[in-house]
Design goal:
The protein has 296 residues and is mainly beta. It contains no helices and 21 strands. A four-stranded antiparallel β-sheet has the order 3-2-5-6, with no helix packed on it. The chain is flat.
Length: 296
């Protein structure tokens, strides 16, 4: 097979606000003609304080990209590129729309930096905005339509608080309630630590979940921080092991709830044969097993 590679294309442009002033932000590919963009930051570029950006290594064709800048609504643009050529997209104007401003603090009144703040319509409707709190805990959600939105704050990978607010009002002062923690140890049927696992804490009665990534020490010990006080059910899963559930785990503010050792039994095995309509074996078929818990 002879493969002929085409010469890559590139695009340049400038992000500007509604008054024509430069806006720093990011542009990334949403869809590339003939396929989708590669994962990660392969097809992504940053616009500096002057608003200018350059995105290289694009195939020729018609593509779609998304542009974002803090304090502005995200925008989707479509453009064409030619083999070996640089395409100038000119000025890309970003709208501000309605905004929600505020500041996030912890239970002691200190600013919370690096928290993700999300806004979605409280009722039916479209629109979405997100921001990351700065060093003072401040956030700005822009590009929204007028109306009421449900905000959520994600701190350390866990959703901590949520509330509903109207656009265009005074800046909100948002405080996190004191949180607790859950700690324990995951072992196998013989009592040996499980090297890699996942723990999910689901509030009794429904609500956002707190997850815990597999530990890197291989000790089997885990600790979930910043858990909102309440009652939880823990589900522990690991490869080649059956899941385990710990019910009625009570978390209180500023305390650690110890759940002790959680023992995982061996996983079950499903065997069978895939055949076609004539009853003949089908080689190379992929089989995926789903349990009821995957839909809970």
């Amino acid at each position: 097979i002879d493969l002929t590679l085409k010469e890559a294309a590139s695009i340049v442009g400038r992000l500007i606000d509604g008054d024509g002033n430069p806006a720093s932000g990011t542009i990334w590919m949403e869809e590339v003609e003939g396929g989708f963009p590669l994962p990660g930051d392969v097809l992504r570029a940053a616009a500096g304080p002057d608003g200018r950006f350059r995105l290289s290594d694009l195939p020729p064709g018609t593509h779609r990209a998304r542009v974002s800048a803090r304090g502005h609504a995200q925008k989707s643009i479509e453009f064409q590129t030619r083999e070996g050529a640089e395409t100038d997209l000119g000025g890309i104007s970003l709208e501000t729309g309605s905004v929600i401003r505020g500041r996030l603090r912890d239970a002691k009144g200190s600013p919370v930096a690096g928290a993700w703040i999300h806004a979605v319509p409280a009722d039916s409707g479209s629109g979405f905005a997100e921001d990351v709190t700065d060093g003072t805990g401040a956030f700005l959600l822009a590009g929204l339509g007028e109306g009421r939105y449900r905000l959520s704050a994600v701190v350390g990978g866990a959703q901590r608080v949520s509330r509903e607010v109207e656009t265009g009002g005074e800046p909100i002062e948002w405080a996190l309630e004191s949180a607790g923690a859950i700690a324990g140890e995951v072992v196998d049927a013989s009592g040996q630590p499980v090297n890699s696992f996942r723990v999910v804490a689901r509030p009794v009665g429904g609500g956002p979940m707190d997850g815990f990534p597999p530990p890197s020490t291989g000790s089997g010990v885990f600790r979930i921080e910043d858990v909102i006080p309440g009652r939880y059910a823990l589900r522990v899963s690991a490869s080649d092991h059956a899941d385990a559930v710990v019910s009625d785990v009570v978390v209180t503010a500023e305390r650690t709830t110890e759940v002790g050792r959680i023992r995982l039994g061996p996983a079950g095995i499903v065997r069978g044969t895939v055949v076609d309509a004539a009853g003949q074996p089908v080689p190379g078929a992929a089989v995926t097993a789903w349990s009821q818990r995957d839909y809970e």
